[in-house]
Structure formats: C-alpha cells, structure tokens
Amino acid sequence: MIFEKASIVDGSGGKRFSTDLALLGERIARIGDCSSLEARQRIDARALVLAPGFIDVHAHSEQRWFEPRSSAGFLAAGITTAIEGARNSSLTAEQAGDLRGSLRLNLAFVASPRREEIERGACGLSVRFGDAPPSEDALRVAKDAGIPLVVHLRNRERELLASLDEALALARTYEMPLHIARFSYAYGEDRALVHVALERLDAHRARGLPVSCDLFPYIADESALGALFPSTTLSRVRNDDTALAAMLHARLHYGDRWGRISLRAVRDERALADLGASIEAIAARRRLSCERTALALLDELGAETPLLHRSLNEEDLATILSAEFACIGTADASYSFDEDPFRLRHPRAYGSFPRLFSRFVRVLHALALEEAVRRCSALPARIFGLRDRGEIREGAFADLVLFDERTIADTATYESPVRAPVGIRAVFVNGAAVYGAPMGEIAYPGRILERQ
Predict the structure, then answer these.
(1) Residue 172's domain spans which residues?
(2) What's the pTM?
(3) How far is 18 from 352, CA to CA, in rounded Å?
(4) Rounded Cα–Cα distance for residues 347 and 331 (Å)
(5) Which residues does residue 152 pair with via DSSP β-bridges, in sequence order?
(6) Which tens digit of pLDDT belongs to each residue from 368-396?
(7) What is the sign, positive or negative, of the torsion defined by CA atoms of 355, 359, 361, 362?
(8) 187-216 confidence digits (pLDDT tens)
(9) Same domain as 237, residue 334
(10) Could you tell me which of 275, 261, 264, 265 has the C-alpha nearest to residue 309?
(11) CATH number at residue 83
C-alpha cells in the first residue's frame, strides 16, 4: 500500500513534510518518492495529515475486550494502542493469550504492585495513594526493569499537593520515572493549584528525574455516587444518625455545586427523567434538599452508580497541556456504538483525541498540530517503552491515522455521548486497515505488545 503526497506529521514534534509513504506487511518500508514502486493499493492523501496511531496511556478496557465490537470506539478516534491496567491488575498471561485473536488494537499493560506481573513484562507499575503502599521489593524490581511508576493521586481537590509530594518523594527515593495518571480533574475550585503543581513537577524534572502525566480534554469527570459520602455511611444509609452525618458531609463539601453533578445511570424506564439530570433538578422534582436526594439515590441505585461532575476549568486544561510532558489518556474503556438506554457514558471514551485537535489546537491554539501529534504518539511510546511505535519512520510498525486537520473533531457530548468523531479518514494497525474510508472497516486481529 502506498500513500501519495501525504502531509506527514511524524510524531517527533518537528515540522510536517509532504511526500509518499509505502507499507510492506506490518512495517513502514519507504518514506519518499514511491512513484516507481508497484502497489496493490494507492491512496491519494493530498490535503490530509498522516500521523502515527494515537496511544491511549490510560485505558480501562481490561474486562471488555471479549465483548463484540468493543474496540470500535477507540478505533474511530484514531487510537491504535491502549495501555491497560493502570487502575486494576494487569491481565494474566493466559488471558492475554485468549485476547490475541479477538482484538484490532495493540495492547500494553501496567502492573499492580506485584513482582510476578513486573517480571512478566509490564510497561509500568501502578500505585494508588490511599490504598496499601507498594512493597519495596516491587519497587526495586520495577526500577531494575526501567519502567515508570504510575501514580493515582488521592483526594485531588483537598490533598492534591500533599499527595503529589508523596509521589515525587517515592520516585526520587527509587530513582524511577514518574507518571501522574488523570492529572486533569484534580483542581476543583482552587485555580492556583494548577500552577503550583506544575512548578513542583518542573522542579523534579530539574533534578534529572523524568516525569509525565495524562489528562482527558473535558471539563467534567465521572465518579461514583458513593464518593459523595464518607465510606462509613455506605452500608448503613438507613440509620438516621449515620444518614444525618452523611448529609452534613455532602453539604460541607459540595455546597452550591449540585447543579453541576448529574446522574448517569438509572435502573429502568420509570426513572428515565432522572437520567442526565443534575442532582439539583432531581431534588426540585422530589421536593427534597440536594443532600437528602443524593442519599436517597444512593439507597435506590447503589454506591457504584456513575455521576458526571463538571468541576474543571478549560483554561486549566490548556495550562496542563502547555507542559511538554503531558499526554492524553481517556481514563475509560473502549465501547461499541450500541447505546444503553439506561446509561450515559462519558464522551471521553469516544472523543478525547479528536477533541485535542479540534478544541485545543484549532480553536484555542494551546498546541501546534505537530506538538499535539507528539503528545498522542511518540511521547507515550517513550514513557512506556513501546519500541518501534509512536513515530513515522522507516522500519517502524505501520500504526497510522489519516485525518483532515480542518475538520477532525469530536461529536460526542455529555447528553449524547455515543457518537463517532468526524474528520478521521482511515486508521491502520500493524499495516492493516481497521477503520474508515476509502477501504471500509476491516476486521484485523490485534496483538499483545511485548515491552522491549
């Protein structure tokens, strides 16, 4: 296959250039004039950008890959590699073997803090502050393996800096590269924290220790209904004293923000009026306080019921993206385009990468297109040690995205999230077309990446 006269943005951050590109099997065979080469297919790529396939550094699809068409949402967004397991344990070798014939994406895995998973070839070590600390043995094995420490900061609104300092201290102690997961939704109402946190990361980098982070480019985050209340109340919400304590806790912490917290799942059609509605609106219909309404929903629907919390500022997102070590992670799973009538997903699962280009490159000018491509490809490949991926160069794997820079955009919204992006013409994984015109959507088995 040959792409003719493509505007190639190679992932390095350097300026684009226009030329031909030829594929041979899974690899890029030639970059340059290919007019004399024979090819089964030639694609006229004039006026289109050809970029490395996007790498999602923070995906949560571990338990969904066995479902039909589960990779469709990621492929439509140009994602060709997903790094899984940052929240949960990485899959076992046996599970990974079962996946080989069912995927179209490449997968890499981050391990929980256990020696055996690191030795199995994990590309990172995941730690969630607030849970049990990682063992010294696991940290030393991870350091020897040269993999990054992937940290979920605790209580991002009220303990962000203290948690960040813990992560930085741990990385310095073991001289490990540090990656902060979900850095974007941490800041609540205190705008100054963004700059203070970035200054601390810059000071860490000045010591010669690598640091990076990921974010999704939306002002709303998804959390569980149970997170609104102290954990001690969750199993005893019918007790009056405990319920009162829970309501006081919610009132103190959420105050006038109930209009920005919306319900994302219900159990049946009788409650569809509540789906997507704010807690404030549901409370008005029930003629209850917002705190009592939230507690009633907890009793009716359970602690794991998802909420959408519009708690960010777009200027803060742009500020984080200005850091050269920031890349994109959906913090979500890849889904098919089948809608669930009782569940509204977060649009980040369908639109995170296209939104980076439409909103933060084309509208806000927070990044140049070449730099945005680097954040989606070469930077995450370098952070997680993915060899021969993330760049367009001869000999590299042919993970590619062909898109129109004038029209690439997310169309998924908070109200209607199951919608494919526009402007992405074709996606290729290991040299095979897996999504888009002019070749149609073609099934292709993916592979489990081995870190080298």
Answers:
(1) 53-219+311-387
(2) 0.91
(3) 27
(4) 11
(5) 128, 181
(6) 999 999 999 999 999 999 999 999 999 99
(7) positive
(8) 455 667 888 899 999 999 999 999 999 999
(9) no
(10) 261
(11) 3.20.20.140
